[in-house]
Amino acid sequence: MNNWLTKITTICLLLIVTTDAIANTTFEITSEQQRYLSHKVEGDMLMIDTSQGRIKMKALSNNALSVAFASNQASIHAQHLSSFAIKEHHQASLLEVTENSTSIIVSAGSLSAKISKLPFGIKYFRNGELLISEAGFFTGKVTETTTEQESTTSEIFPMHGVRFSVAENEKFLGAGERVLGMDRRGHRLPLYNRAHYGYETHSEQMNFSLPAVMSENKYLVLFDNTAKGWIDIGKTEKNTVQFEAVAGRNAYIIIAGDTYPNLINHYVDVTGKQPMPPRWALGNFASRFGYRTQAEVMDTVSRFRSLDIPLDAVILDLYWFGKDIKGHMGNLAWDKEAFPTPEKMMADLLADNVQPILITEPFILSSSKRWQDAVEQGVLAKDSSGQAKTFDFYFGNTGIVDVFNDKGRTWFNNIYTALAKQGVQGWWGDLGEPEVHPADALHTLDDGSVVSADAIHNAYGHQWAKMVFDNLQLLKPNERPFILMRSGFAGSQRYGMIPWTGDVNRTWGGLQPQVELSLQMSMFGLGYTHSDLGGFAGGEAFNKELYIRWLQYGVFQPVYRPHAQEHIPSEVVFHDKETQDILRKFIQLRYQLLPYNYTLAYQNSVTGMPLMRPTFFNDNKDFLNTQSYLWGDAFFVQPIVKAGMKTINVALPEGVWFNYWTGERFIGGQSHQLANKLNEIPVFVKAGAFVPMIASTNTISSYKGDALKLHYYADSSIDSASGIMYDDDGTSMNAIETSAYELFSFEARVNKQTLAIDISAKGKGYRSQPAKRKIEIIIHNWSKQPKRIKVDDQIAGQYRWNEGDNTLSFTVDWQQHPINIKITKNE
Question: Topology of 7-170+217-271 in CATH?
Answer without folding.
Answer: Immunoglobulin-like (2.60.40)
